[in-house]
Amino acid sequence: MSALANHAFAKMNGIGNEIVVVDLRDSKAGSKAAAVTPEDARAVASPAGVPYDQLMVLQPPRLAGTEAFIRIYNNDGSEAGACGNGMRCVVRRLFEKTGQTSVTFETRAGLLNCWQGPAPDLYTVDMGAPKFGWQDIPLAEEFRDTRYIELQVGPIDAPVLHSPSVVSMGNPHAIFWVDDINAHDLERFGPLLENHPIFPERANITLAHIVDRDRITIRTWERGVGLTRACGSAACATAVAAARLKRANRSVEITLPGGKLAIEWRERDDHVLMTGTADFEYEGRFDPALFASVA
Ligand SMILES: N[C@@H](CCC[C@H](N)C(=O)O)C(=O)O
């Protein structure tokens, strides 16, 4: 039987990024009861389940000083190393239940510190340091300078999209710089680029327009999901990539279809801080019938 059958969940969203939070910390670490399989994750996303972009699963902590080991599933059942919007949802849920105002989690991408503030309805996640090395992103072939890589969509002499910046924020991102983020058919190009052979682990694909040195607008095709109203790690990756190109300041406001995020690429330790809201929608229990065919 699935670890999720009859288990409680909270449906939330981080500026429109659809998030389901499940707390399995009561289960014994490493036990089957603490494990969610890709089939489980897909069953939750099925039409009879609970719609989500990411499923955030809190497992018992593996390291002293951390609250939980968090595993992040996309709705196609694949696992991600990072999810900025999902982290804010987890943090809000936890803080409202416990009165805590700061916490450290372990994820596949490393330790993440999170806190409430700078206003009561805002949550900040320290997303760690970005990585720019081609093997870290990863790319399938060597690129010495990942501020722009050779990759294009459309005719060779008149590409529609070209020369993205690539960054790892614990997950792979490619950012295409454009004049108008709504002028391109991201639903059509997104899957082609997500699965392009240059990205051996696939990639999140973002269209970004630099409004001025303090403001950027983006739209993202998420790996393992599709078009979303917001992608927090894409906002971080875009802010960092724009600052690296010296086209924006290290603190910027990113506007996504679902809302705004404040991103700061901190000079002193290279870490990226993401601040925004998180909204609770409803809670419930997973219907065991969802997992009947999963066994
Ligand atoms: N929504 C997320 C990113 C989720 C993970 C992504 N789809 C991946 O597979 O890397 C965010 O807010 O960062």
TrEMBL record:
<keyword id="KW-0028">Amino-acid biosynthesis</keyword>
<comment type="function">
    <text>Catalyzes the stereoinversion of LL-2,6-diaminopimelate (L,L-DAP) to meso-diaminopimelate (meso-DAP), a precursor of L-lysine and an essential component of the bacterial peptidoglycan.</text>
</comment>
<comment type="subunit">
    <text>Homodimer.</text>
</comment>
<dbReference type="InterPro" id="IPR001653">
    <property type="entry name" value="DAP_epimerase_DapF"/>
</dbReference>
<dbReference type="GO" id="GO:0008837">
    <property type="term" value="F:diaminopimelate epimerase activity"/>
</dbReference>
<feature type="binding site">
    <location>
        <position position="74"/>
    </location>
    <ligand>
        <name>substrate</name>
    </ligand>
</feature>
<dbReference type="InterPro" id="IPR018510">
    <property type="entry name" value="DAP_epimerase_AS"/>
</dbReference>
<feature type="site" description="Could be important to modulate the pK values of the two catalytic cysteine residues">
    <location>
        <position position="222"/>
    </location>
</feature>
<keyword id="KW-0413">Isomerase</keyword>
<feature type="active site" description="Proton donor">
    <location>
        <position position="83"/>
    </location>
</feature>
<feature type="binding site">
    <location>
        <begin position="84"/>
        <end position="85"/>
    </location>
    <ligand>
        <name>substrate</name>
    </ligand>
</feature>
<feature type="binding site">
    <location>
        <position position="204"/>
    </location>
    <ligand>
        <name>substrate</name>
    </ligand>
</feature>
<feature type="binding site">
    <location>
        <position position="171"/>
    </location>
    <ligand>
        <name>substrate</name>
    </ligand>
</feature>
<comment type="similarity">
    <text>Belongs to the diaminopimelate epimerase family.</text>
</comment>
<comment type="pathway">
    <text>Amino-acid biosynthesis; L-lysine biosynthesis via DAP pathway; DL-2,6-diaminopimelate from LL-2,6-diaminopimelate: step 1/1.</text>
</comment>
<protein>
    <recommendedName>
        <fullName>Diaminopimelate epimerase</fullName>
        <ecNumber>5.1.1.7</ecNumber>
    </recommendedName>
</protein>
<dbReference type="Pfam" id="PF01678">
    <property type="entry name" value="DAP_epimerase"/>
</dbReference>
<feature type="binding site">
    <location>
        <begin position="222"/>
        <end position="223"/>
    </location>
    <ligand>
        <name>substrate</name>
    </ligand>
</feature>
<feature type="site" description="Could be important to modulate the pK values of the two catalytic cysteine residues">
    <location>
        <position position="173"/>
    </location>
</feature>
<feature type="active site" description="Proton acceptor">
    <location>
        <position position="231"/>
    </location>
</feature>
<feature type="binding site">
    <location>
        <position position="17"/>
    </location>
    <ligand>
        <name>substrate</name>
    </ligand>
</feature>
<keyword id="KW-0963">Cytoplasm</keyword>
<feature type="binding site">
    <location>
        <position position="54"/>
    </location>
    <ligand>
        <name>substrate</name>
    </ligand>
</feature>
<dbReference type="GO" id="GO:0005829">
    <property type="term" value="C:cytosol"/>
</dbReference>
<keyword id="KW-0457">Lysine biosynthesis</keyword>
<feature type="active site">
    <location>
        <position position="83"/>
    </location>
</feature>
<feature type="binding site">
    <location>
        <begin position="232"/>
        <end position="233"/>
    </location>
    <ligand>
        <name>substrate</name>
    </ligand>
</feature>
<dbReference type="GO" id="GO:0009089">
    <property type="term" value="P:lysine biosynthetic process via diaminopimelate"/>
</dbReference>
